[in-house]
């Protein structure tokens, strides 16, 4: 289960591959069974729109893996095969490392969360130390739930930075520089489990189409607005990773020709005018007490004019960048995540206006923009989904 050097980490599949399509179909069957309970193969075919032959093949594979159990029944006077999800006892672990926190979820293969905990981390934390703290928290969660370590399939980890999928290494450009150079192998040694890794925005997008209210959406952009601004893409029902895995770097889209130099080396990037850190810096000018994200949320809800103006300017710029992407991929849905989502329409309104300014009219009119359905849990749930995908695809 350990990644082979030079190959993409598990869960990093080619969106156009047969394996990716098989996983998508497996997921549709699992979702139908979760929503409707035990069903015959004919009911599964009707409910998912898959052919009876495809359903039969997938059910057979999932039965071999112990994910489903089958039994003969009579339906409408004919012999049929009843399919139901089984409790295999296997556990998928999802871990999200943020700027000041780590969140861990434990899940069954049937997408049921059985434990969840979060822990605060200091700003600029030592990454090896934080990883060991997270591994210790996971151990405590397993003991508290009386779960055997052998039941853990793998640990999915979301990291706030670009990841080279060829090696599983965090690249320059991570919003937390301390993560740069961290390797998959380092994480596996700390957790003492097989590990799969992905960018946090990618996992937010994956969570939305596997756990959230947006299951079944086939073309989606998940935008996480924080100290950095990243986007996860779902195209034709599957995560899109590009050539190296470095996609959705929305924060490094130039939007101001004469803007300041960005940490990536370019000038006038979106991140230099619309990230939460820039909003905090702007609102902190001439103020004795430091401004925090929580202050922005509170003052925004109180309709503070300075906060609303800063949020409006940032939201409009973000919307313009999203509009450029929308013109290329024509998404059905844009979801906004990150710590400022509590501002609601004060943030969404400017983003929508920015999209309208940059997207062609028919795309602007038909693209839905709303807040993420999963809040601050999206990235950890997406990390668990990455493990579940590997288990259903037989990659573990």
Approximate helicity band: 40-55%
Strand order of the largest sheet: 6-5-4-7-10
Helix-strand makeup class:
alpha/beta
Order of helices and strands: HEHHEEEEEHEEEHEHEEEHHHHEHHEH
Instruction: Determine the CATH superfamily of the largest domain.
Output: ATPase, nucleotide binding domain
Strand content: 15-25%
Number of domains: 3
Note the total helix count. Answer: 13
Specify the overall morphology.
globular
**Rg, nearest Å:** 22 Å
Protein architecture, described:
- The chain is of the alpha/beta class.
- The chain folds into three domains: 18-85, Winged helix-like DNA-binding domain superfamily/Winged helix DNA-binding domain (Arc Repressor Mutant, subunit A); 91-206 and 377-393, ATPase, nucleotide binding domain (Nucleotidyltransferase, domain 5); 215-372, ATPase, nucleotide binding domain (Nucleotidyltransferase, domain 5, 2-Layer Sandwich), CATH 3.30.420.40.
- The protein contains 13 helices and 15 strands.
- It has helices spanning 18-36, 41-48, 52-64, 127-144, 184-191, 200-210, 271-274, 276-284, 293-301, 305-329, 345-358, 361-366, 378-393, and strands spanning 39-40, 68-75, 78-85, 91-97, 101-107, 113-120, 152-159, 163-164, 169-170, 195-199, 220-225, 229-235, 238-239, 333-337, 368-371.
- The strands form four sheets. Strands 6-5-4-7-10 form a five-stranded mixed β-sheet.
- Helix 2 (41-48) crosses helix 3, helix 6 (200-210) crosses helix 13 (378-393) and helix 10 crosses helix 11 (345-358).
- It is globular.
- Mean pLDDT is 87; it is low at 1-16.
- It comes from Leifsonia shinshuensis.
- This is Putative NBD/HSP70 family sugar kinase.
- Belongs to the ROK (NagC/XylR) family.
């Amino acid at each position: 289960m350990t990644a082979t050097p030079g190959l993409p980490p598990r869960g990093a599949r080619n969106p156009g591959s047969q394996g990716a399509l098989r996983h998508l179909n497996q997921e549709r069957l699992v979702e139908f069974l979760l929503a409707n309970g035990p069903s015959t193969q004919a009911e599964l075919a009707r409910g998912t729109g898959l052919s009876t032959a495809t359903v039969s093949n997938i059910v057979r594979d999932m039965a071999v893996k112990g994910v489903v159990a089958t039994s003969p029944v009579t339906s409408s006077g004919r012999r049929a095969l009843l399919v139901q999800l089984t409790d295999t006892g296997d556990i998928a672990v999802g871990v999200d490392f943020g700027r000041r926190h780590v969140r861990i979820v434990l899940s069954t293969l049937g997408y049921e969360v059985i434990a969840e905990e979060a822990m605060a981390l200091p700003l600029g934390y030592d990454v090896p130390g934080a990883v060991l703290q997270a591994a210790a928290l996971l151990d405590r969660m397993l003991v508290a739930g009386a779960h055997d370590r052998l039941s853990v399939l793998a640990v999915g980890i979301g990291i706030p930075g670009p990841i080279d999928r060829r090696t599983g290494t965090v690249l320059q450009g991570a919003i937390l520089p301390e993560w740069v150079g961290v390797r998959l192998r380092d994480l596996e040694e700390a957790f003492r489990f097989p590990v799969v890794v992905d960018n946090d925005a990618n996992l937010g997008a994956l969570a939305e189409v596997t756990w959230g209210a947006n299951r079944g959406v086939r073309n989606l952009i998940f935008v996480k607005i924080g100290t950095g601004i990243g986007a996860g893409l779902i195209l034709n029902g599957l995560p899109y990773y590009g050539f190296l895995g470095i996609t959705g770097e929305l924060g490094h889209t130039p939007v101001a020709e004469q803007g300041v130099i960005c940490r990536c080396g370019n000038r006038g990037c979106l991140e230099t005018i619309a990230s939460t850190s820039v909003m905090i810096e702007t609102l902190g000018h001439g103020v004795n007490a430091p401004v925090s994200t929580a202050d922005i949320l509170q003052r925004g809800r109180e309709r503070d004019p300075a906060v609303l103006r800063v949020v409006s300017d940032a939201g409009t710029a973000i919307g313009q960048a999203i509009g450029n992407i929308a013109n290329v991929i024509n998404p059905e849905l844009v979801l906004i995540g990150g710590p400022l989502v509590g501002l609601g329409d004060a943030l969404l309104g400017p983003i929508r206006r920015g999209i309208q300014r940059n997207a062609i009219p028919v795309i602007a009119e038909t693209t839905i923009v709303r807040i993420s359905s999963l809040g601050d849990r999206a990235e950890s749930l997406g990390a668990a989904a990455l493990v579940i995908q590997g288990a259903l695809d037989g990659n573990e």
